[in-house]
Every structure is written in C-alpha cells, then in structure tokens.
C-alpha cells in the first residue's frame, strides 16, 4: 500500500469534492458497463440509477439488461484500484473518473495515468478486433464485435486476482 493512505471503514477519508477527470477515450475504447460486468474483478460496484433517476424515467428495456456482475445499464461504478477508491461513469462520448480517497498532505495522484494503466487504454481495440476477425471470421463476427465495444482486460495486481479467485464461489 502507498505510504500515508490507509483503508478504513470510516467515511472521513471520502473526498467527494474531488473533480471528475476525463479519461479522453472514445466510446469504443472503454465502456464501464461492458468491462466491469465481465467478472474479472469483484472490487467494482454499480451505483444504481434508481437512486439517481426516478423509476418512471427509466425504460422497461433498461431494467431488464443484466450481466454476470451488475446491470449493463449502470452508468456509474465505485471501485478500488491499488489502495484508492474511485468512481467511474460512462457518458455518451467519454468516460469520467473521480478519486474518492482523501489524499490530503500527499503528493498529487494522477488519476488519468493510474486508470489509463489499469484499463490498458494505451492499447487500441480496433486493431485487435480486426486481427481477431481475420483469424477467426466465423467466431468473431461483426455482431460480436459490436457487442464488445469498450471491453477491456484489467491490469490488476496478481495477488489481488489470486485472492479474488480463491474467495469467489
């Protein structure tokens, strides 16, 4: 863990006043609702739209879309990367992130750099899709490619992955 930041059950370390940071990715490169529902990490929790948007404003089709881990219609997620708590939300054009861990007295945390590494945003998806379609055209069809928009493999700490695997059912 980073020096000076310690996990706690107290809400005193939550800093909701931190600004949102634009990860500057296009919508095809990172979609939280696709990436964080794949089951590769159990440290992200969807924030229910019902808490923000009245039920009458959500459509029936939105409430029926669910994945292995959460809803495919959620727009905001809370999770842990290293030893810091973040919230991430998808917009129609980009993905925004905000550090929720209070880092008073510590060096500035580069949210964009940390999450770019975590979501491996430096690896463009389009060339991968083309390569997969060329090598397995019957398996990786255009329909599948369209449904996989913004799905990322997370770059997680190996120890964290092992613990999540051992503690999952």
Keywords:
single chain, alpha+beta, TATA-Binding Protein, 5-stranded antiparallel β-sheet, 6 helices, 5 strands, globular, disordered N terminus
Tell me what you see in this structure.
- There is one protein chain.
- The protein is an alpha+beta fold.
- The chain has one domain: TATA-Binding Protein.
- The protein has six helices and five strands; from the N terminus they run βαβαβββαααα.
- It has helices at 32-35, 60-64, 111-118, 125-135, 142-147, 158-167; strands at residues 21-22, 44-47, 76-81, 84-90, 95-99.
- The protein has a five-stranded antiparallel β-sheet with strand order 1-5-4-3-2.
- Strand 3 (76-81) and strand 4 form a beta hairpin.
- The longest helix has 11 residues, at 125-135.
- The radius of gyration is 17 Å and the shape is globular.
- Mean pLDDT is 74; it is low at 1-10 and 51-72.
């Amino acid at each position: 863990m980073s020096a000076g930041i310690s996990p706690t059950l107290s809400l005193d370390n939550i800093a909701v006043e931190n600004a949102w940071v634009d990860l500057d990715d296009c919508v095809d490169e990172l979609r939280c609702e696709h990436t964080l529902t794949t089951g590769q990490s159990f440290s992200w929790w969807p924030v229910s739209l019902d808490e923000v948007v009245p039920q009458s404003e959500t459509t029936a089709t939105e409430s029926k879309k669910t994945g292995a881990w959460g809803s495919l219609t959620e727009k905001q997620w809370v999770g842990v990367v290293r030893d810091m708590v973040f919230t991430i939300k998808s917009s129609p054009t980009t993905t925004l992130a905000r550090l929720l861990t209070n880092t008073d007295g510590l060096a500035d945390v580069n949210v964009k750099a940390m999450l770019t590494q975590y979501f491996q945003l430096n690896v463009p998806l389009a060339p991968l899709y083309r390569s997969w379609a060329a090598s397995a055209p019957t398996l990786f069809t255009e329909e599948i490619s369209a449904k996989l928009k913004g799905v990322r493999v997370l770059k997680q700490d190996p120890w964290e992955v092992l613990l999540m695997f051992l503690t999952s059912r």
